[in-house]
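Quick one: co-fold with adenosine monophosphate.
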Amino acid sequence: MTPADAPAGGRIMIEVEESPERMTAAVRAARERGRRVGFVPTMGALHAGHASLIEAAAAACDDVVVSIFVNPKQFGPHEDFTRYPRPLAADLALLERLGVRWAFTPSVAGMYPAGAGEAVSVAGPADPFEGVIRPGHFAGVATVVKRLFEIVPADVAFFGAKDWQQTRVVARLVRDHAIPIEIIVCPTVREPDGLALSSRNAYLTPAERARAVALHAGLAAAEACWTAGDRVAVAEVALRRALEARDIACDYAAIVDPESLAPLDDPHGPAVALVAGRLGSTRLIDNRHLPARAAGAI
Ligand code: AMP
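Sure, here it is.
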């Protein structure tokens, strides 16, 4: 640690940086001093799921950058961009407690000045599931992640398995554009009853919150079918029925290849079960990895 990184008297204060240019310069300077920089992109409204990514970054890196940016490009015209929660002061207090070095809080104009942030399209894993239900969503994700990786040239970036399809889109983006950053995927953090933490859980009424456990319960039912040697279609029906039993409109319930998200070539797996459902005006997604099962088990 250089004197610049370790002021006398203790922990480094968080710096809140709005300027892309100054953010890039700070990360470059840290890396030139030999520091390993970890990056956690978020849209804010931080919860324990985000905190787990930041803790993983802090454990693996010398300095951590967390971006807070509600990216308009990844919301459809009838989605929740304007009502998306933005509790910035509470978010910054959490980042400070977690020992984050920089909070990057750009404006929309700063992120997308004329000539920057040109739309990036990613095929393959971006096409099915969320790509069908939310047209343009992953183009918006790929565009903002590419721009963020330009502005925050970190060694490594951390993403949550909660958004499994997004992790595959980001992996493809990094590969297609030869972006020199390592991607680490961290496990999903859940409520005690199994509901995956999400900033959107705040929209749920108490009654909807009680029903929302059906996504987790459905994934557990699908895994039980999978382990018992049922056909893939049978496990998918068990997943869909768990949602329907709690009056949740199911957008998709599918068991697919965990990398390509294409239908399984081999019904033995490994696989990932993906699910999305709507409760009132709130959409929730979740997933579960299914290990390879023994040949002849089906
Ligand atoms: P968001 O703020 O929703 O864009 O999420 C920022 C990052 O946090 C993404 O990489 C998400 O996958 C991750 N994340 C969101 N919820 C969870 C969770 N429950 N557990 C782990 N990571 C999560």
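If it helps, The chain has a mean pLDDT of 94.
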